[in-house]
Fold this protein.
Amino acid sequence: MYAYLPIAENSFNILILIGLGGAIGFLSGVFGVGGGFLMTPLLIFLGIPPTIAVGSEASQILASSVSGAMAHYKRRNIDMRMGGLLILSGLVGSTVGVYIFKWLQSLGQIDLTIRITYVALLGSIGTAMFIESLNALRKTRVRSRQKKHKHNFLHGLPFKMRFPQSHLYISVVPPIVVGVIVGGLSSIIGVGGGFILLPAMIYLLGMPTIVAIGTSLFQITFITANSTFFHASINQTVDIMLATLLLFGAVIGAQFGSKMSLLLRGEQLRALLALIVIFVCLSMLYSLLATPLSLYSIEMAS
Amino acid sequence: MIRHTSSLWLILLTAVLLDAPSSAYAQDDTTFAVDLADRQISITAGFNGANLLIFGAITRGDVILIIEGTTENYQVRKKKYVGGIWINSEAHKLHSLPNFYVVASSNGALEQLPTSKRIDHRIGYDAITQEIPTFDAHAREFFDSLVRIKEQDGLYQFLPDTIEVANSGLFRINIQIPAAIPPGDYVIRALSIENGEILQKFQTALSVNKVGFGAEIYRAAHQYPKLYGISAIIISVFSGLLANFIFNRRKA
């Protein structure tokens, strides 16, 4: 059974698309991440043009993060002041990102940029997560007393602001920088950015984990909505048919995934996620290094 | 569709039979007719390519069929091994190439025609762009690559000696239309050839259209991009909340 994707102007097996959504939804249910960083590369591997994969994925991440954000809002897990700051800077980042995307596309380098960015990001984050979770697995019994958060060089920066919900009194510069970068990545490589935002909020800004999760979902909802709008209005690359099919699979997969997550320990989950991240990174790296099947590619020009 | 086709066959056959006696004493009065089983290809929600049945009748000579879409400019890029990775590093722009091009012929028809006539009538890949005489080795390399990619996608097809002409003068050919066919208007030309000369020309049209919901989505995305963007956001938010509602309700 095939579905004709009206924006991609080609047809794809409907079961593969829903199955892909289901598999990624399952993983996102297990690990509590959006899964955009897995979905976009897989869509590109399937043969969906990178431009359409990125644009459509933004709208799918929006759909899958909005209910999580609502739930955290009800439980008051969102640091509104931090969220607002990240959203404002993220909107700037994601809007600029859409224009950078268009520029790279005209140079014929968007595909390469997406791949290299994935390799760099997934490689570093996957490795760090893997080491951290291995250490945690070894030392689960040993519990050392920790400060609420470590003080680092970032606490010396000016323009300090109080974030009562996160129990922080820090400079606004690091959140703004993080917001711009994550917003830009959301537009350029088609991810929600949770896998960058979360570690940045927890380790860099020193926010409590549960508030970081709620606030990042809150931020991702707004940023992906912005990316969706600009990808649709500037690049015309949002295929709502594709997004809906993926989403349909994803919501079902996520339900099974969240049940599965109850069976595993936190450190085990993080180690597994790290392995998946490293695997995607290596396959992207391979696609950059291996001799391509065809050296040539064509696109319509004006 | 089969019944529809066979009735057209009957009409054509009758035409040939009726025509046969007259051509015995009127040299110029030869039958040459071509038709399509369907003049329109509809891209529906489940579209995955189509078969285009072209058939006709010919009483003298051989037949060549050409299907062409609209012309576009193409950027062809070539990857090079730079610093350990493969990067698009060379580009060449080719102008006014058809986005879809098929040439098919009956046995030996193409070889009969001298190159000049093939160029004049846009028959064969070397006739599809006027830039070809100006090509250097570099341009040629990029052009050949474009043709190869288009052939892999089924958007260019070179099918010499594939049209079977029966003794009765009836012929037919089935062209595979890929799912990635660009929507738009197509021109189908047919030529009858004898001893290297073109006897008769025939032209008809084919239209490829998106229909139904998919067509609306495409139209909205391109004509009202801002509105489409906002709708995409609303649809995403709504479906996310709906999914959450359905599953949470079942849990409760």
Observations:
- Chain A is about 70% helix and 5% strand.
- Chain A touches chain B through 55 residues (CB under 8 Å).
- Chain A has a mean pLDDT of 85.
